[in-house]
From TrEMBL:
Gene Ontology terms, MF aspect: oxidoreductase activity, acting on the CH-OH group of donors, NAD or NADP as acceptor
InterPro entries found in the cross-reference section: AKR, AKR5G, Aldo/ket_reductase_CS, NAD(P)_OxRdtase_dom_sf, NADP_OxRdtase_dom
Name the UniProt record assigns to this protein: Aldo/keto reductase
Active site residues per record: Y54 (proton donor)
Binding site residues for substrate: H112
Keywords of the record: NADP, Oxidoreductase
PROSITE patterns in the record: ALDOKETO_REDUCTASE_1, ALDOKETO_REDUCTASE_2, ALDOKETO_REDUCTASE_3
Similarity comment: family membership: Belongs to the aldo/keto reductase family.
Residues the record marks as site: Lowers pKa of active site Tyr: K79
Matching SUPFAM superfamilies: NAD(P)-linked oxidoreductase
The organism of origin for this protein: Thermoflavimicrobium dichotomicum
A Pfam family matched in the record: Aldo_ket_red
């Protein structure tokens, strides 16, 4: 059980990944993303999650460099966008991301969405980047069980991570069980339901009980489910608050209360019906 912001999960290739990170989706390039990343690093975060599609890799790289924390102490995740999928185009896209981030290597490189007919060639490119030492770990994002089974059937390197929409209204129990069985670390994007957690009565009641915010309740639930979580915020006080989840534990009964909120409701696109 994660007891501090510096605690890590061990990926299936032996790489350590922090349980908590900062997500920078929809965070503007330049000042906004630079300040958010610096605030997170000051607060003890050591994992930053970006993507080519977020168009803020340059700011992320700049903030990490200016933070004064050694590069090897920061875990950087980025992702290849759908339009760049395919073998050669993925290698080219990676090089662009790497240059924008201003780093020699990336800690985790993910396929952003399972683009049909392309993600296997994209995966071969990721395997090459991994074997060449340009990435420390490779994984996927938004993959359902059937996509993972398809990839696992003939991949040379097993995905280390599957980053998906995961929150109390979309608990993805089968996918979580499948990933745990396969030793693929599940990671939650939009863990706070794009802000909707504050409106849920069950979560509000638990927040009062534990003297925590609704966001802290849900992020703690993620950790106790064994799910890496990357809440997004641009406000320093919120970034700090989101990290204050290591000094309490939800009881099994309260974990179940949150589990029961599942409605299979997505705030983001459905990986099986996404306009790629």
């Amino acid at each position: 059980m994660a007891k501090s912001i510096h605690d890590t999960t061990l990926l299936n290739n032996g790489v350590k990944m922090p349980w908590l990170g900062l997500g920078v989706w929809k965070t503007k390039e330049g000042e906004e993303v630079e300040q958010a990343v610096k605030a997170a690093i000051r607060s003890g975060y050591r994992s930053i999650d970006t993507a080519a599609a977020y168009k803020n890799e340059t700011g992320v790289g700049k903030a990490i460099k200016e933070s004064g924390i050694p590069r090897e102490d920061i875990f950087i995740t980025t992702k290849v966008w759908n339009a760049d999928q395919g073998y050669d185009s993925t290698l080219k896209a990676f090089e662009e991301s790497r240059k924008k981030l201003g780093v020699e290597y990336v800690d985790l490189y993910l396929i952003h969405w399972p683009v049909k007919g392309k993600y296997k060639d994209t995966w071969k490119a990721l395997e090459k980047l991994y074997k060449d030492g340009l990435v420390r770990a490779i994984g996927v994002s938004n993959f359902q069980i059937h996509h993972l089974e398809d990839l696992l059937a003939d991949c040379e390197v097993k995905p280390t991570v599957n980053q998906v929409e995961f929150h109390p209204y979309l608990t993805q129990e089968e996918l979580l069980a499948f990933c745990q069985e396969q030793q693929i670390q599940l990671e939650a994007w939009s863990p706070l339901m794009q802000g909707h957690v504050v409106q849920d009565e069950t979560i509000q009641a638990l927040a009062q009980k534990y003297k925590k915010t609704p966001a802290q309740i849900v992020l703690r639930w993620d950790l106790q489910k064994g799910v890496v979580t990357i809440p997004k915020s641009v406000k320093e006080h919120r970034i700090v608050e989101n990290a204050q989840i290591f000094d309490f534990e939800l009881s099994p009964e309260d974990m179940e209360k949150i589990d029961r909120l599942n409605k299979n409701h997505r705030f983001g696109p459905d990986p099986d019906n996404f306009d790629f």
